[in-house]
Design goal:
By secondary structure, this protein is an alpha/beta fold. The protein contains 14 helices and 17 strands. The strands form two sheets. Strands 1, 2, 3, 4, 5, 14, 15, 16 and 17 form a nine-stranded mixed sheet that branches. An eight-stranded parallel sheet has the order 6-7-8-9-10-11-12-13.
Amino acid sequence: MELDLVLTNTQIMLPSKGLTPGQIGIHGGRIALIAEPGAKLQAKETIDCKGLWTLPGIIDPHVHFGFGSPETDFQTESRFAALGGTTTVLSFHRSADIRDSFDPVRERAERQSCVDFGFHFGITSHLHVETLNEISHRFGVPSYKLYMMYKGAAGLSKGFTDIDDGLLFAALRETAKIPGAVLGVHCENVEVIPLLRDPLRAAGRDDLKAWNEQSPDFLEAENVHRVCYFATKTGTPVNIVHLSSREALDEVRRHRLAPNAPPMYVETCPHYLFLNDESPAGTYAKVNPPVRGQADVEAMWQGVIDGSITTIGSDHVPRKRETKDKDIWAASNGFPGTGMILPILLHEGYHRRKVPLETLVKVASENSARIYGMPSKGSIEIGKDADLVVVDPDLEKTVDPGTLESNSDYSPYEGMTLKGWPVRTLVRGRTVALDGRITMDASNSPGGQFLRRLTP
């Protein structure tokens, strides 16, 4: 058999083996063989990787494409993803009735995205719960998110009237009935936040630390306890998304020890591993939950190392700089980050903290593929999709929003020099990014595919 492509002279990240010298043969978009360095392989194209690493493509399980420019986000943000070595994303879709709204969004994404993609559904009403089995099987989406942040007055401001503990419990019960399904939950006790926020504002505070103080770690931990406790009662796999604090992580650890505890996954974000509440990024680093103190940054790394944290998601939101150039109370929440997962993990994790590369690959690729039902993704193995990223671990680059292709024109990391960057990104064996640029082929024909993760 003549191969379509061979990556030669590379260090391959192989499951249970680590970096291993060898070659990767690709045929029909999949990994056809993994060969010794000296093996003679016939291929239409051979790429000399010059001794650099080849890792599985990063899977970002938490992006909000459509929150910047709804009509074009899948084009711009998938390019940002690819430039950073991210080859698969899972984006959030919510509407009043998902049965009516989903197909146009999926079709637009298929036209625009240069990386493969799937979706989570946002649960904000009892209608969503009542139709969950239908929309899950019809659209192939077995993962969801419920927003505890939007209870009461906070929810009313966004038009959500059903979000309370009853909706949480109903969503958990319904999720438990769907094979392979997992319910993600945003955990912050929004009912207490105003009691802490209003005195800070009255005192004239306008700093990133004040944003942390108005929604402190124990308000996250309290909601985590509630979700895990209810999940144990219903037997539902849950994912605590964008977890930010030691206290909240300790709640998950505690609940995992309960008899008959269901799977309890934890996702953190690159910003909780890299930024703290004294960051000079200021409002550009405003996010929910807030970036915390340095002690919580250290706790998040410990969670990655000991396996308490299972995945890394960017919580990517691609709005413009003008929405951030306000005081801390008026600036928009969230920021762009999908293409920054790998550079931050390499710089802060591998180089600075000596975290094993195998550990970083598990939380950045392997675990998301397993948890979210993507068996062809997440690792370099024969038969899997050739989603690969060639990495120069010693390459140093300064973060420049102008080169990232995002609709967003800023970054909380701008001006920072990071060590360890991708130089080539392949999606199903096709090079979509090379040396910091999207290829002309990927620009003209994006080629990303929708990932159906549940059969009809």
